[in-house]
Amino acid sequence: MILRKVLIGVIGMLISYPTLSQTIEEKKTDDFTGSKIIRTSEENLLRENGMFSYVRVSSINNETVLNYRFMITGKIVTINKGNALLLKLKNEKVVTLRLDDYVVAGYGNGAVGVLGSDAPGANLRFVLDSDQISMLKSSPIAKVRLYTDDGYIDSDVKKEKWSSNIQRLLELIEE
Fold it and tell me: Domains in the chain, ordered, with CATH?
């Protein structure tokens, strides 16, 4: 009887799993500033080569922002203002995003909840222009390159579902 209940619970979770991802987490108008804010859920992008990353898309007064949260096992990195995050799409185009601030990775800074709280990481913010949005919506992501002060870190986006997460998040904030 207990096994049956557990099995029914697991099946229920598996059936509902796709509906739990890619959602609008916040949609409001700020009481003080009047700013219109739309923020999506944070979704996986990659888990390769000791790098874990998550993405979120926000719209604040029609300015679209991509948050790229990452953790790197065992390595503190610094990222200078102007360093790039390159997103190579499956259609072979490359979207170049430039950091507009200096960032030092720190322990727990890239964590999502308790996961990764003991690993170095950071949360990077990139304002997207209309050309970048169009390119990101046109094709899933195949590979990510993050330039740090020590060189760069390449990672392939191997999970098909994750490679399309930015596309789906951009579509969500336009609805």
Answer: 2-174 (2.60.40)
Is the pTM for the entire model greater than 0.85?
Answer: no
pLDDT tens for 61-71 read: 999 999 999 99
SS3 labels along the chain: CHHHHHHHHHHHHHHHHHHHCCCEEEEEECCCCCCEEEEECCEEEEEECCEEEEEEEEEECCEEEEEEEEEECCCCCEECCCCEEEEEECCCCEEEEECCCCEECEECCCCECCECCCCEEEEEEEEECHHHHHHHHHCCEEEEEEEECCEEEEEECCCHHHHCHHHHHHHHHHC
Of 66, 69, 65, the residue nearest 51 (C-alpha) = 69
Interatomic CA distance for residues 138 and 19, integer angstroms: 23
